[in-house]
Each structure stands twice: as C-alpha cells, then as structure tokens.
Specification:
Blueprint (H helix, E strand, L loop, with lengths): L2 H8 L1 H5 L2 H14 L11 E5 L5 H8 L3 E6 L2 H10 L5 E5 L13 E7 L7 H14 E10 L5 H10 L3 H15 L2 E8 L2 E7 L1
Parallel strand pairs: 1-2, 1-4, 2-3, 4-5
Antiparallel strand pairs: 5-7, 6-7
Helix pairs in contact: 3-4, 6-8
Length: 196
C-alpha cells in the first residue's frame, strides 16, 4: 500500500463526517453548470477515486446508474455505509493497475481531486484507462490556476504533484484528447471535460 493509500484508508471516517456538506457542495456545482454541461443526457457514470461516495450520491439522485471506485478500503466501506438503500456500486480498485471493466463500459468517467496527487506519468496512465472504459466524456474535476496559501500548504504536506499539475494539466489533456473544454466550478476548481 502506497503512503497516500494508507493515509486515505486511515482518515476515511474523518472524511465521512463531511459527507453531507460534500453532497450539498457537489449538488450546487452541477446544478449551476446544467446550462453549460448537463449529465442528464447520459445513462451511466463511473467516479474514479470516489472517496466517501458523496459525488456518486449526487449523480444517483440525477438519475444516472453509478459506479464508484477507490483504492482505499476504508473509503469504500464509508461510501457503502453512506449510500445504504441506493443502488450504487462501490468497488475497491486502482486505476493505475487497470480497472475491471470492458472497453467503453461507461458513458462518462469522472475523477475528482485525484489527478493533482499523481505524478505526470501516473496521470497519463489514469487518462488512458479512463479513455479506454468511456464512450463519451472524460472529466477531471480538480484545481485550477487560482491557488490559495492553505491549499498550497496542505498539498505540500500531502506530497503529491499539485504544483506541477497546475502548470501542465491543460497541455497534458490537450495532448491526450482531441476536444477539451474547461469550465470553472468555483474560484479554485474546474471541470476539465474531454469529449471522445
């Protein structure tokens, strides 16, 4: 288990405390963007790095068939607890070692605040795997160029590739995908939407 994997496994119950706040936040984001970006045109979606399943619950409430994957066992357990009574599939899996799905299994794939924590090479692996399993849209929901000091400190402590990610994400996606649109979700985050 990588250091980040065990970290997220160990803090999954703490993340679970913020589940309702996250659901409200994601609902607000996707409702505000409906006129520019509407997921109701699609049937199913996979959330890669789903954490506690908050975003999965939002997509489920919008009528999508939802699958969430995470490599942290604790996150998957928390997601299942938070989604009792909802037909959301949660699977422990690692996008970097290959996902247990056939090519073009999902209309849409999304990954929220995962890419910045990966190295550039790992991001390329993730993008390729998302492209493989997706029919229509690959979405990276992550930081934009508007950085904040608290975020900088937290990301420095986490040890991911946040600082390089901010500089290179647009170029990385444009090399990998033909049609990429960037929509700011709020002051510090954006949806990087690649059409297939």
């Amino acid at each position: 288990m990588r250091r980040e994997d065990s970290l997220f496994h160990n803090i999954s119950s703490i993340y679970g405390l913020f589940f309702n706040i996250q659901v409200k936040h994601f609902t607000h984001i996707f409702n505000n963007l409906k006129n520019r970006f509407d997921l109701s045109n699609y049937e199913n979606i996979i959330d890669i790095g789903c954490g506690t399943g908050a975003m999965c619950n939002v997509f489920y409430e919008q009528g999508l068939t939802v699958t969430g994957i995470d490599l942290a066992e604790g996150m998957i357990k928390t997601a299942k607890k938070k989604s009792i009574g909802k037909d959301i599939k949660f699977i422990e899996a690692n996008v970097l070692t290959g996902l247990p799905f056939a090519d073009k299994s999902f209309d849409v794939s999304i990954s929220s605040f995962v890419a910045h924590g990966l190295s550039k090479n790992e991001r390329q692996i993730m993008f390729d795997e998302m492209k493989r399993i997706t029919k229509h849209l690959v979405i990276i929901y992550d930081y934009n160029e508007h950085r904040g000091l608290i975020t900088d400190i937290a990301e420095w402590l986490e040890g991911g590739d946040y600082f390089n990610f901010i500089k290179t994400i647009k170029n990385e996606l444009n090399k990998k995908f033909i049609d990429v649109t960037i929509i700011n979700a709020n002051i510090r985050s954006a949806l990087y939407i690649a059409k297939l």
